[in-house]
Amino acid sequence: ATQRSEEVRSFRMRLRFREDRIKRLEQVASGKLSAEAHLLQEKEDLMKEIEALRNQLERNPEITRFAMENLQLKEEIRRLQSFVDEGELERMHQQINVLEHQLLEALDWKLMNEKDPVNKDLSLFGEEAGDEKNEFLLVQAIQNEREIESLRKNLSVCLQAKEKLER
Q: What keywords appear on the UniProt entry (predicted)?
């Protein structure tokens, strides 16, 4: 409601400025007002109209929301770019490779040391500490892969947004 009343007030001001302009043009045409005085008054009214339009623009919530989103996207692009520039992505990839290698070694060791496949479930309880470590490594590797994939997608979205903004 407040926004609507502001818009109506702004439109009324613009209408008044235009009506005043028409009256002055009529006065110039009839010789009651000099052209110089008319131009000075015209300039002043146009400045007031511009100010009213700026105020209306600043109060428009959608434009404000877009401006905030734009700033947030720029910050996200900057953060992701610094993430890539600092080599953090490569370090995480290396860490994932190390974790995957450790997991594969642990699984290979488990398969080689497992004597009776029928009692596989029972042997799992006996090797609980090693399995917990393997499970932890597997979960950590999966989480790291998901985080990298999420970061890649986020970087892609931000780069696309950046390209749109640069156009």
A: ATP-binding, Coiled coil, Microtubule, Motor protein, Nucleotide-binding
